[in-house]
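re: that chain from earlier
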Amino acid sequence: MQKEVLQWWRQAERDLLSAEHSLSSGDFYIAAFLSQQAAEKALKALYLQEKKELFKTHNISRLAKVFDIPYILLKKIAMLEPVYQETRYPDVSAKIPADEFEQKDAQEFVNIAHEVLTWIQKKIK
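^ sequence. v structure.
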């Protein structure tokens, strides 16, 4: 595996691990954010491997559509899309990020990130 691809992949794995830890500690908005980040970084690792350049975007749905990802997984990735902003900025919704996310939300996002990384892991060389 190319060094830069490996770096993106390893950080994606670490973000997912940290998302799980945040879920366990009750920091649900952090678990949600890190789930989105894990999916984004894993997708960027795959893009870098396949296209030999980095796609600089936070639009993970657009990034995912480059690949032959199953439709159901694309729909799940789309659910992660707004998390990037919702977890970072207090003016995006009626609540601050720390109050916006519940355990069930965070668990769903962690599960989606797991699915994304599992699918990509089969493609990463």
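The chain has one domain: 3-121.
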